[in-house]
UniProtKB/TrEMBL annotation:
It comes from Mesorhizobium escarrei. This is Blue-light-activated histidine kinase. Residues 135-205 form the PAS domain. Residues 208-260, 333-383 form the PAC domain. PROSITE patterns: PAC, PAS.
């Protein structure tokens, strides 16, 4: 629309409005002159319809008011001219004048309404244009200041438009980028990936992305995520390809570092026969590395239910894997379990790690190690040391037998020069010593129970004599046990010859108790015989008296007491725990 259009009248400067008024006045004046001359020359045959073109022009140039005023002025001028020239105004002239007034009013109102409609349309269009411009401005601002690089390219790969970030990434300014092709920015080794993106674009999808290396202006390369998108749905490669460049160099470096660290960790774990595992205690799901399942003797799997492990974990060790009902804070987790592999072998497995709460879920995670060989080596070493200790003890005991036997020979006198009896007595003592030695040798620790030593001497008479043996469990070391066995043997031998064991109606009671509840208290040993005793000649300084300590210190213990009557015998001895302890 021209700048002098009435619809834009309010936008005209004063000189423009003045020219519009002059043009309107000129049209009005020319129309009045034409109507006056027509009335003079044509006479009554002229009509008011000659004013309509002028009214239309004035309505177009001016607003509704000037157009109505011009219409009234034209009607008045026409009526005045006819009245002057003809002396009167005919009814036909009045009808034409009224018709002109109506036509002029309609024309003025019509142009006024059209002018308002046009103005409203222009205002709506201007508002929409302003919104579009504002949106474009915001997008332009975002485009220029985005954290990623943006560009547009055509089907030839030419960069038509780029933002500031892409210039910073590549080192080129916008004018230099506009003279380059997208392929030029891509590293030669990654240009095939770009070609594949362009080939698939518009066929399979409207957007594709790939990680490629881009070249800077100085020739160095950096990793980026390149995304190509079509801005039109028809899939035609024209000036519609939108390029997004995201610099992922740091992310890629971190990823490569993590990958290298994982490879190193896997290598270290594999070299140490270690495996990684994780147990989600809420869902009861177990995940682990391939080595973990290999240690358990199970085929590799992504995950398994915790209950499935009960088939291979030893029942006694299964509670170690039980789910804790209380969500505890981070704690160390260190257990050893036994695993029965499908081939029947038992393996010791150590699970070490942490038990912690993560996202309101209790979990255990750590490493697993096969300790079977180490445990077997430890057990073998312990067994070897134990065997060596026992052998040393037996050797020491065997060496000590010679002094004991020598003492026996020296202590036994030849009764009345009876060599046969001397021989019999000596052999009997040696056999008693042999029986005690065999009893102690049957125990791996080289010690014996007091109860066993007493029963061993009385065992031949258990079925035919009234014998009772009672007392708490007491362990005696090898040397003390041998000496104590000789005391019991001497008592049994004396009882068989002169006391209860030699009488079918006799009774022997053997018991021992602790002198007090103190851990270091003595043990009081009592040998009590009841029944008729056969008279005998007591030798005060004989071998038996020396053993039981009637005339001095016994072989073991202290404070011996011997009481004999015609109807029985009582022998009492106190044994120190430190003296008889292993």
């Amino acid at each position: 629309m021209p700048m002098n259009s009435p619809s834009r009248r309010s936008d005209l400067n004063p000189s423009g409005r003045l020219l519009t008024h002059i043009a309107s006045a000129s049209v009005l004046a020319a129309t009045l002159i034409f109507e006056t001359k027509a009335s003079v020359y044509i006479g009554e045959g002229s009509s008011f319809l000659e004013f309509i073109p002028a009214i239309i022009i004035i309505s177009y140039l001016e607003d509704r008011g000037p157009a109505l005023a011009a219409t009234v002025l034209m009607v008045a001028a026409g009526l005045w001219t006819r009245s002057t020239l003809h002396g009167q105004i005919s009814g036909e002239d009045w009808a034409r004048a009224i018709l002109l007034l109506i036509s002029g009013g309609v024309i003025a109102m019509t142009f006024h309404r059209l002018r308002q409609d046009v103005r409203e349309l222009l205002e709506v269009a201007e508002a929409r244009l302003a919104a579009v411009e504002a949106t474009e401005s915001r997008y332009r601002w975002a485009f220029e200041r985005a954290a990623m690089g943006f560009a547009n390219t055509n089907e030839k790969g030419e960069l038509l438009q780029s933002n500031r970030r892409l210039s910073e990434m590549t080192g080129y300014d916008e004018d230099e980028l506009a003279q380059l092709q997208l392929e030029t920015l891509v590293h030669p080794d990654d240009r095939d990936a770009l070609a594949q993106l362009l080939a698939r674009l518009g066929k399979d999808s409207a957007s594709f992305a790939s990680e490629v290396r881009l070249l800077r202006k100085n020739g160095t390369a950096f990793w980026s995520r390149l995304t190509l998108s079509l801005s039109v749905p028809d899939g035609v490669l024209s000036e519609t390809i939108f390029v997004v460049v995201d610099d992922i160099s740091e992310r890629r470096a971190v990823h490569e570092a993590l990958r290298a660290q994982k490879e190193w960790l896997d290598l270290a774990l594999s070299a140490g026969r270690l495996a990684t595992w994780r147990i989600d205690l809420k869902d009861g799901i177990v995940t682990g590395s391939g080595t973990f399942w290999d240690i358990l003797g199970l085929p590799p799997a992504g995950s398994r239910r915790l209950e499935e492990l009960s088939a291979v974990v030893h029942p006694a060790d299964w509670p170690k894997l039980a789910v804790s009902r209380k969500l505890a804070p981070v704690t160390n987790y260190d257990v050893e379990i036994r695993v029965r592999r499908p081939d029947g072998h038992i393996r010791w497995v150590a699970l070490r790690g942490r038990e912690e709460k993560y996202d309101d879920r209790l979990q255990r995670l750590g490493v697993a190690a096969d300790l079977t060989e180490r445990r077997q080596t430890t057990l073998l070493r312990a067994a070897a040391k134990k065997r060596e200790r026992i052998m040393l003890e037996q050797r020491h005991r065997f060496i000590n037998l010679f002094p004991v036997i020598t003492a026996l020979v020296n202590m036994v006198n030849v009764p009345e020069n009876n060599v046969a009896r001397y021989k019999e007595t000596l052999i009997d003592r040696i056999r008693s010593l042999e029986a005690t030695h065999l009893l102690l040798s049957g125990n791996s620790s080289g010690s014996g129970m007091l109860h066993d030593l007493v029963v061993q001497e009385l065992q031949p008479y258990m079925g035919t004599r009234d014998i009772s043996v009672s007392g708490p469990s007491v362990t005696m070391s090898g040397g003390a046990a041998e000496s104590f066995a000789m005391i019991v043997h001497e008592l049994a031998t004396n009882s068989l010859k002169h006391g209860a064991l030699g009488d079918s109606k006799g009774r022997v009671e053997v018991n021992w108790t602790f002198a007090s509840e103190d851990a270091g208290s003595d043990i009081v040993f009592d040998w009590v015989e009841s029944g008729r005793r056969r008279p005998s000649k007591v030798v005060r300084h004989g071998f038996g008296s020396m053993i039981i300590g009637v005339d001095g210190a016994p072989l073991v213990g202290h404070s011996p007491k011997l009481e004999m009557t015609d109807h029985g015998l009582r022998y009492s001895l106190r044994l120190s725990r430190k003296e008889i302890g292993p």
